[in-house]
Amino acid sequence: MLFNSSVFLQFFAAFLLLYHLCRHRLAARNILILVASYVFYGWWDYRFLALLFLTSLLDYVAAQRIEAATTTARRRLWLGVSLTGNLGVLGFFKYFNFFVDSFVMLAHQLGFHAEPRTLGIILPVGISFYTFQSLSYSLDVYRGEIRATRNLLNFLAYVAFFPQLVAGPIERARHLLPQFESTRRITHGDLQEGLWLVLWGLFKKVVIADNLAPLVELVYQHPTQSAPAVILGTLAFAFQIYGDFSGYTDIARGLARWLGFDLMVNFNLPYFAASPRDFWRRWHISLSTWLRDYLYISLGGNRHGPWRTRFNLMATMLLGGLWHGAAWHFVLWGGWHGLGLMATRKSPVAANRRSPELGVSPEGSARRTPVRRHETLRRYAACAATFLFVLYGWLLFRASSWEQVVTLTQSLAHWTWPAWGWDYVWGLAAFVGPLLLIQTWQAQAGDLLAPAKAPRWLRATLQAALLLAIVAFWEHQAAPFIYFQF
Q1: Which residues constitute the domain of residue 156?
Q2: Catalytic residue positions?
Q3: Disulfide-capable partner of 268 in 282, 383, 388, 454 (CB 3.0 to 4.6 Å)?
């Protein structure tokens, strides 16, 4: 069931009516959320509902055993049960065939013959997201950062919460779980901000991302020996994947806001970043902070000298790349960003806390730090360099194979303007232009919700324009979100 489908609109309208009717009963609302979430997830394939339930139940029990354990050994034992269960399920469904095929390929390279024994495994949608969300709960209980909950209903609803179940943001129990345990009051501000987020998210998906997809396919389906073609195609993909993924997050946050929940900010104007480190403070924030807190810091972080720090950065980014998919070009993409983080770790722009960059505040809004005039030019240059760095990373990410990576990279040496070049440029500008205008407004205001707080006449005009564009480009056959495959 896709957010951009008529089926979901009907589903959510019916759910919202029932949710309103039981507004004075917290338990009834949580039961309704749980049932609706399982219906939502089972719409793809009901067979995987058992997997979602068992993953949740495993961490619910493991966390209680961790908290009740009287010895370090038993605490570690139950943490190991949670880690093994979650990562085992994720590894089997997502990476079994990948590692088997990689072993066979390596054996052939070494001159050995090996017969692959792969399985017809179907990847459960959203498995990378909900296993990480559930696992973080066990880890936080082990670290003593939260108490284990005794309410199974609330915990199951926390893991399966349908607005963010299949593509994030990857929530932490200390932020989202308490919201299931207290009465939720929905204010006029919640409705207003939720409306903006849903319309803006649908616009980014239906109007921007879905219309950039054919432009991306034109270049990546049949790569040509032309640097301008590769650059234009990769530019289109950069904004397609941003519009698609951040659009999902905005819709999820807007729907949650209408239900009285606050989900974390997952994207904070990432193409305004001034360094690779700044980019990962802005892009897929729920994953980057998860990797930082549970992987990078667990490996030692920056506590054991510069060389160990570089190793930890690279290992974290390689595994972050592999999280995105069972293919070596995703690992290569993670390695590319690992190199960028290592190379710029001590750069002046990355280290300067007074540079004019947007950061995410604890409340989830954006803030702008002051800047001296002489720093502005350096900031713009750093942003341009970072965007070029990220852009080549998107080439690695979008390429379907190592061979295509080589072909596309070699094409950058051939500066032949394609016959369709100017038509492509105008099409790209038509769909990316509105996005950049709104994001420049958000950056200047220092607030991601600035359009929702505009004067009433301006807000109504903007929302009407977004709605008309969404209706005009709405497809009867809804296009899936890119990150559903991860």
Answers
A1: 6-184
A2: 324
A3: 282
